[in-house]
Amino acid sequence: MLRTFFSQAAELKSAREIGLMREAGKIVAEAHRLCRDMCKPGTRTIDIDRAVEALYAKYGATPLFKGYAGPNPKHPFPASTCISLNEQIVHGIPSNREIREGDIVKIDTACKLNGWCADAAASIPVGVVRPERQRLIDTGHQLLKIAMEELPKRRWWSEIAGIMEKTAKQAGYTVVEQYVGHGIGRIMHENPQVPNFVVRGYKELRKVDFRLEPGLVLAVEPMVNMGTNETRTLADQWTVVTKDGLPSVHVEHTLALTANGIIVITADA
Asked: How high is the pLDDT of residue 205?
């Protein structure tokens, strides 16, 4: 989600609603298993997208990305998945481009089932990747793991975001600030917005920070760059790339906070 901070409260979900979201999450998890199996040298990204769309159709689920309105309402997103390679951060449009050995393939996809949404992203190394690329992928997973472990322990989201940002910087990387995670439920993008960094300034932080309480469901999605965190958007009006051309990783799970801990809505069944 493009970072446009606002302060409306999150809509808390009941145990029943979280259970319904989990059913959507299982389909998203299956889609990601399919994507991992297909991420081999020579595979076209459009073929991965078509396979995911067929999977959603099989379950009667609605792909949430296809037709999503962007900055230009005349140019909605044309696919069921965002597939972004290497220096592409997010919102890559599937095409006839073939995956190559050593690529980092980022796949983001979401669906709605019976009125409830789930959203997840993965960074997939293709074949043997260079050690510095694997380390970047590992750091992305580490940040997501921090969020999962800390959600039941902390009072405010900014506490977790600070740990995530510090961990990325200590590893020598930067966190993308233009795009953030989000609340999720009956629609894909709900309050609150979920930055993976600490917003600077007391007034600004108060606008975006939120209390962690049972019933909160968040799509947490750290994006970590090997170089600068500055971005630019390609001429297709969707694909976001690193300004310096260095690789980026993007991982995401939909997480529900309950009185008994975390439920990973998009966990592999």
From this structure: 60
pTM for the whole thing? 0.94
Please state, in angstroms and as integers, the Cα–Cα distance from residue 193 to each residue in 189, 201, 242, following that order.
8, 17, 22
Task: Report residue 258 as tokens.
Answer: 């309950």
Q: What is the pLDDT of residue 72?
A: 83
Identify the DSSP state of 206: H
A 10 A CB-CB count for 140 gives 26
For residues 62 and 46, what is the distance between their CA atoms, to the nearest angstrom? 18
| C-alpha pair distances (Å), 44 with each of 12, 94, 100, 241 | 40, 8, 10, 20
Q: 1 pLDDT band (50/70/90 cuts)? A: low
Q: 20, exposed or middle or buried, with CB in 10 Å at 0-12, 13-18, 19+? A: buried
174 class by beta-carbon count within 10 Å (0-12 exposed, 13-18 middle, 19+ buried): buried
Q: b or e along 194-214 (b: 16 or more beta carbons within 10 Å of the residue's beta carbon)? A: bbbbbbeeeeebeebbbebee
Helix or strand (DSSP H, E) at 55: helix 45-59
Beta bridge partners, 257, equal 262
Q: How crowded is the C-beta side of 26, counted as CA atoms within 13 Å? A: 8
Domains, the chain, ordered by start: 15-264 (3.90.230.10)
| 159-163: long-range pairs with CB below 8 Å, 24+ | 161/195, 161/196, 161/197, 161/198, 162/198
